[in-house]
Please model this.
Amino acid sequence: MNSVGGWFAAVDEALCKGCGNCISVCPSNAADSPYRNQDYLERLLEEVLVE
Amino acid sequence: MTDLNIILFMCGWGPHAAYQTLQDDVAPIPGEIKMVRIPCAGRITKALLMKSFEMGADGVILLLCEAGSCRYGSGTENAREHVADTRGILDLLGLGKTRLQLGNFLPDEPERLLQFLADFSEEIRTLGRSPIARGTKIITDEQHQEVLSDIISAHDVYACQDCGKCSSACPLTRAGKPFSPRAIANAVIAGKVGDPSVQKDIWACLTCGLCYDRCPSAVNFSEFIRDLRAFVIQRTPDKHAAHGGFFHSLMRTMTEPALDINHWNWLEDDIQIDSDSKTLFFGGCAPYFDIFFKQHLGVNTRESLISSLSLLNFFDVHPALLRGERCCGHDLLWSGDRDNFVKLARLNREAFHEQGIEEIITTCPECYTTLKRDYPAQGIDLDLKVTHLYEFLEQEIDKGAVDFKKINKKLTFQDPCRLSRIEKRPDLPRKLINRLNKVSFTEMANWGSNAICCGNSAWIGCDAFSKALQVERLKEAHDTGGDVLITACPKCQIHLRCAMEDPFRGDDLKMDLVDLATVLAKTIEWE
Model:
């Protein structure tokens, strides 16, 4: 329940498999996953590879 | 411990389930393998694969589901294409295609997966570290810090009279984009370079030079934009790159001196080359473009290199080639990465001098203007003659005894901005076209120094307006009543072909596109 008494959805990060099915059905574009974002993946590569 | 880095892009479905079993069993997964889990291997673009190598990865693996078991349908097929193309490019680059591997796994195949990973790690250990230095940052050279006031005065931007001729000539404005060169000039003078609209517009400019041509105060807006990009990139390194930044990654990779590039490994034996010749033919990046775009556009820009070499051979010139030819750096310079441009230019100069080259002939208008004009302007003096193939041909054909076979086609021509505007030589291709034995040659409504851009430059800022521009240009070509649109730049070929791929209007826009060197090579004969 949120502050104005309504419900909202949350992702359980431990269970999320990152399949992206929520993204394709979300009517308000609220759902997204960083793993389909090129900037995020580039930064991830930088973390691993840049000394 | 190991000092190798292998990036493992892992599809979260089939292979990841197998990988988890290995983790649960504490199986001996090689330590150099760094796993990046992703929803689908099909989303790993060629740009991300290339980026890994640019940053110094020693090996890259892309693991995906077995064919037919992709949860999203086309992931397996996309990943296959991306890997095949990138492997082709790694081969040309001399990094070797074995450093990139693809593997398909089902969830119940952990043992096979472990074997695959062990085998690949072993192979990379045998190959050793990648010649690319790790963690290549975009900005490396502190001494080139740009100062905004210097950029404004270097290009005399204060001379702008705010007359609006630039905006009315600009191809982007023509395509309906809210974009104005003079507005950028005014904003930068007023110290508003950080405004979001200015930041965006800096990357949208085509640097085609049409505004400079019209400017009564001779403000060289293209060069102003080029330097602004170098200024902006040091603060916010987002280049609005097209194709995920693949080509910029590729060019930066080439700044590594240790790379054993294999630029001409595809060339067939019937071309006469003389490695002792003091005349060098400089090809340019067409071989890379063809691999990158072959899945979509049927692009064959390499053909113009073969045609150019055949034309040189026709006139008994057997040029030298650089086996390790690097990019001239045009797109790095024009996308603001001056430091890496200078690195490439120095390596090129060294290679030319080592081979004792006295003259460079090239058919690519970007290579031509870069080697001839930008190298000395950026402090890299080559001290040798740079000739465009068309100059050489015009001179040779003018001696007489040369004829051209009949072509039953009506021709028109797309001017490359680098040759027709920056070098101010729209006459060069036209002299040659006029010599051809054709049905007719008709100019488009906008031609020569007034010609409209093919839609993009330096692999940045591609959007719906670029597309609108290409559509308009192709309509102009059709309006001439011609059958063949002759081009003189590999980029014009690629960009105009892209517009023809449009699923709705493509059929109306389709037209034969041929490079001028190819038309000449196919029809030239001795009298």
